[in-house]
Amino acid sequence: MTLREAVLRSRRYARGGFLVLALGGLTPATALEAQDPVPADSVISLGELIVSALRAPTSVGEVPVNVTTVTREELRLSAAQTLQDVLQEVPGLNFRFPFQAGVAHPSWQAVTLRGLGGTAASRTLVLVDGVPLNDPYFGWVRWSQVPVEVIERIEIVRGGATVSWGSQSLAGVVHVITRSGGGGGFSASAQGGSQSTFRGDAMASFGDDRAGGYVAGELFNSDGYILTEPSLRGAVDIPSASSHGALRAKVEFQAGDRLRIHAQGNYFDQDKDNATPLRNNTTEAGFGQVGATLTTGETSSLAFNAYMQSQSYVNSFSGVEAGRNSEEPSISQDVPSSGVGANLVWSGEAGTIGVDFLRATGSATERYLYRDGAFARQRETGGDQTLFGLFSQLQTDLGDRWRLWSGGRLDVWRNSSGSRHILNTADRSVLTDDAFEDRSGTQFSLNTGILYDASEQVALRASVYTGLRVPTLNELYKPFRAAGNVVNESNEALNPEKVTGLEIGVDFQPDPAVLVRLTGFHSSVRNAITDVTIQEAETSGVIQPCGFVAAGGVCRRRDNVGTLRSVGLETEIELRPSAVWLLAVNHQYNPTEVTDAPGRPDLIGNEVQGSPTHRAMLRVGHIDPSTLEVVATARYLGARFDNDLNTGEIAGSFLLDVRFRRQLTSRLSAFASVQNLFDAIAEMSHDANGFIRVGAPRTLIGGLRVRFGG
């Protein structure tokens, strides 16, 4: 085993309660409650742990960047209730507004790595078995879409090594790997608690040496809580209730000694109340995937995958009057969209070569300008987007201690059929009839990384990279209205964002039970897309290009603001004093700011919205499966801003969660958790006009899980 593998082995050994919980968050007792207890002192060498977030199976010990892998064994300890909750504990990963996924509007759930966020469109690619989970139209991520029981592991790659994935992975990749089934078995859990929350899941797996798979489902329902800060609440503020169902199936078949075929599909149906009686949204989404892997040699293979995504999103929004005691409809949206993609990848001992393709299409029909009990306008927008990429990623040993990575990618993109039509709903007369010019471009991106085993206690790593993100169809063509009378105009002339970055890291292991990891990074995003404030409305009136804006509201427009700079240091310290005790702490220092803004000098030096300078986590746990397991997790999220002008500061917050688990029999386990133990009021958003949304109050959840078979 190499020195880096040994270091990372200890990293995973201690992380059994640190990143472990990172994914257990899918639900207080989801995926892993059913499995047999894992001995606290059992460890799998990361030299043998294979990750695929780099496009081809690769040993973690051979990757020149900071990779976080959360396994099934690491899920069962978490107090988090969703995948989104868990990922908030991963160093360098953040959300635009870190609400619980059960109450959050889809546009709030964008994920970002190392401070590269600030808009509803994720700069991070989220995958499930190689298929993008990002919405093909908006770029959003719906974290409840995958039943948690099917998850095998999650891989998070920040920045540098993601050249293989192209446009959507400017900040990095989060790859969810689902189970392969096989062996036969059944598991189920039921849990409930605060806010009339219920979650149930079940999974049946089957298989033999030639074929295997699973069928799994999840049901969730919660009354939610009131998001508005207590002192600001009025008669219109109600709990943000949510319910969803998810169904997923997967099958794999060994067609011969060298050919393996797989197929899978997912269906998701969700209804949400968005904090007032007139605000709600529904989503119905599905996807299908087919693929095959052909073994072409002892260490090489050729893999093909094709997939299709389709969804329907319906959203109703309102304008709330001063005092928050009344509201009226402001917009009604119907947004169908779809995506079709495919990839072909050859991988061997020396690296990978591949090609990929994605075509997304979407349209939005919106009724707005509510007058005298009816909407006066109808707006229809939409377009198509095509992304094509050709890439290679190579690795070479340079002696016993050195390993070199190098990769390149050519991206070709095209935006077409963009349009906007506005009708007068009374007589169907056409007020606006715009057909936007088709646009296209190409860009070459690269990455280079190196690993060096300096000694038995120290391993060094470094990488440099470039990349891009093409704006989403939503950013290009669809305006929107948000709380606080915010009107945000789209921009069909947006250019792709381009990133240049580097990271340098050291893993120090003075003792098998102690691990210190330090990672410094610097990245620069040119042509950064953000919501730029045009004017704040002192009185109601027309502000171009937004149109009518109510008093106290804001007119904004998506624009290539200039350049964002993200620098920082990720510190991870893990201790394992004994086989049953763990201690883990991590801290991220990450000031991210605008360094260049042509035409807007007032933005230079401002922090990127939604990106805190400090994030920290402390975990202490007793994880002996033969007794009561107890894990406490404290999280600190620093102050950050809610807009580009830095006039809406979101206060920092400190939350403490505690998780309990007890194996009752070989097949039955019980679990309970308390989130936000001290019932702290944690700000999640803070508009410029002073409107504040807050996180969940103290939440208690408990349940049982049963497992039969393998």
Describe this structure in words.
With 710 residues, the protein is mainly β. Helices cover 4% and strands 57% of the residues. The chain contains 4 helices and 41 strands. The strands form 7 sheets. The chain has a 22-stranded antiparallel barrel. A hairpin with a 4-residue loop joins strand 22 (439-453) and strand 23 (458-469). The longest helix is centred in the first third of the chain and has 13 residues, at 3-15.
Give the SSE layout.
Elements: H1 3-15, H2 20-24, E1 50-51, E2 58-59, E3 67-71, H3 83-87, E4 93-95, E5 111-113, E6 124-128, E7 131-132, E8 151-158, E9 172-178, E10 185-193, E11 197-207, E12 211-222, E13 242-254, E14 259-273, E15 280-295, E16 301-320, E17 327-348, E18 351-371, E19 374-397, E20 402-424, E21 430-435, E22 439-453, E23 458-469, H4 473-477, E24 480-482, E25 486-489, E26 497-511, E27 514-536, E28 541-543, E29 547-549, E30 554-575, E31 581-589, E32 592-596, E33 614-622, E34 629-637, E35 640-641, E36 649-650, E37 653-663, E38 668-675, E39 683-686, E40 692-694, E41 699-709
Parallel strand pairs: 6-9, 25-30
Antiparallel strand pairs: 1-2, 3-8, 4-5, 6-7, 8-9, 10-11, 10-41, 11-12, 12-13, 13-14, 14-15, 15-16, 16-17, 17-18, 18-19, 19-20, 20-21, 20-22, 22-23, 23-26, 24-25, 26-27, 27-30, 28-29, 30-31, 30-32, 31-33, 33-34, 34-37, 35-36, 37-38, 38-41, 39-40
